[in-house]
Amino acid sequence: VNFLLCFFNSVTNGGKTTLAEKLKNMLPNCDIISQDDFFKPESEVETDERGFKLYDVLDALYMDEMVASVRNWIKSPAGSGVVTEEPQKTCDNLKNVYILIVEGFLLYNYEPLNKLWNRRYFLTLPYEECKRRRSTRVYQPADTPGYFDGHVWPMYLKYKNELEENASMQVDYLDGTKSQEELLSYVYSDIIQELNKLME
Questions:
Q1: What pLDDT is attached to residue 81?
Q2: Residue 36 catalytic?
Q3: DSSP β-ladder status, 30-34 and 172-175
Q4: Engineered SS bond to 3: which of 81, 98, 122, 141, CB 3.0-4.6 Å?
Q5: What is the C-alpha separation between 132 and 36, in angstroms, rounded?
């Protein structure tokens, strides 16, 4: 069985989930695993001295379970229960290919996941736009005052710097301020190219 793993990482509210959902509707046999589904319950998430819940760190997530889900999918992509509509204009030779999109905000600094990918994308946003988008969303638990500047944004910068310093990391950085159509069209063509290479 041929399969392709695409990882989408982004700053909070960078558009990765929307992009993943749209791609799922366009690609053959496509599944999504979302990092947000692996958050620990609030009671298990550490709180720092300022009273901020530390959600933007790997310790706030059941990462072993996430890796296990990805590995289970790899073992049996056809058995993962994916039933897709025939995506428009997919060439016949792509019918036997399975695609997994893994989307999250802390994917590339976790070693066990790093051995698994085919393509990696990172959606970035400038500070002002990111803060604006974040303020329009409702979170459970809700963001406390100062949380974005005190925890979310500094953790994102720290994470992105670690990534950029790691020369062996092949990551395609995408500008999250571009229109969804533009991003979708770019990533879709990129994945199709990758699939065609896979099938050669």
A1: 55
A2: yes
A3: unpaired
A4: 98
A5: 21
Contacts 24+ apart (CB under 8 A), 90-97: 90/27, 90/28, 93/199, 94/28, 94/192, 94/195, 94/199, 95/28, 95/29, 96/1, 96/2, 97/2, 97/3, 97/4, 97/28, 97/29, 97/195, 97/198, 97/199
Mean pLDDT of the chain: 89
Number of Cβ atoms within 10 Å of the Cβ of 9: 25
Q: Could you read off the pLDDT of 97-118 as tens digits, one per residue? A: 899 999 999 999 888 988 888 8
Q: What percent of the chain has pLDDT over 90?
A: 68
For 44, list phi and psi in degrees, rounded to 5.
Answer: -100, 0
φ/ψ of residue 172, rounded to 5 = -95, 110
What tokens appear for 32 in the block? 């999504």
Catalytic residue among 36, 37, 149, 172: 36
DSSP class of residue 143 equals P
Is 86's pLDDT higher than 60?
no
Kindly state the average pLDDT of the residues 75-85: 65
Give dist(CA 9, CA 108) in Å, integer: 8
CB 197 within 8 A of CB 4: no
**Predicted local distance difference test score (pLDDT) of residue 177:** 95
Q: Are 116 and 70 in contact (CB under 8 A)?
A: yes
Which residues face 173 on adjacent strands? Answer: 122
Please check whether residue 16 is in contact with residue 124, taking contact to mean a CB–CB distance below 8 angstroms. Answer: no
Residue 100 corresponds to which tokens in the numbers above? 């997994």
